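Today's session is about reading a structure prediction critically. Students often jump straight to the picture, but the first step is always the sequence itself: look for stretches that repeat, for charged clusters, for runs of hydrophobic residues. Only then move on to the predicted structure, which in these notes is written as discrete structure tokens rather than atom positions. Here is the chain we will use throughout the hour.
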Amino acid sequence: RLTLLLPHGYEGQGPEHSSARLERFLQLCAEGNMRVTSPTTPAQYFHLLRRQALRRPERPMIVMTPKSLLRLPAATSTVSELTEGNFRHVLPDPTVEDASAITRLVLCSGKVYYDIQGHARRGEATSAAVGRLELLYPFPVDPLRELVESYPNLREVVWAQEEPSNMGGLTFVGPRLRSVVPRKLPLSYSARPERASPAEGKAAIHAQRQSALVLDALGLTTEEEG
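Below is the predicted structure for this chain, in token form.
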């Protein structure tokens, strides 16, 4: 039942603060040998640890734990969420009121969810919903399929990550998403370009590129593009 809590989240503090090398753990995943997770709320984290203590068969678990979520006001849970329910593999967008109005589904994992939902221009993307993969391995096929099917007028699905495209979950999640998302729907991704270093070392550049990938995920143009 070994459980590793590894700092992972692009927060503008340089490479050593950013990457737990998620992609390398995912490359090791096969035959149900481990669990790789990225909980985004206190309730999810609580139920995840409880589940790890009780679940059979016993397997090691890797948990991505962004430092910024320790004090982020948006990353909170109610008492009832802690005392009831269980760990959910996939979380839908809690801000969506009319599922029929959604044409773009953005899927992500970890703290980038809060960067997307909290962006100053998020309100412009009224037809976009943001879903979260809280469990990366074993890959949650059925919960993901249910999420996709819950939006009857969906036109495209986007995988969004703050890591460079040669890192993070992209190469692992991408092929598996194609087996879940209907062939008629375009499937794309938003990420930083391929890099040798996990993250920028300058906070201003980090913020600029983080904003750009969020806008790309939402289907919005940057200020420079007009």
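Discussion point for the tutorial: The chain has a mean pLDDT of 93.
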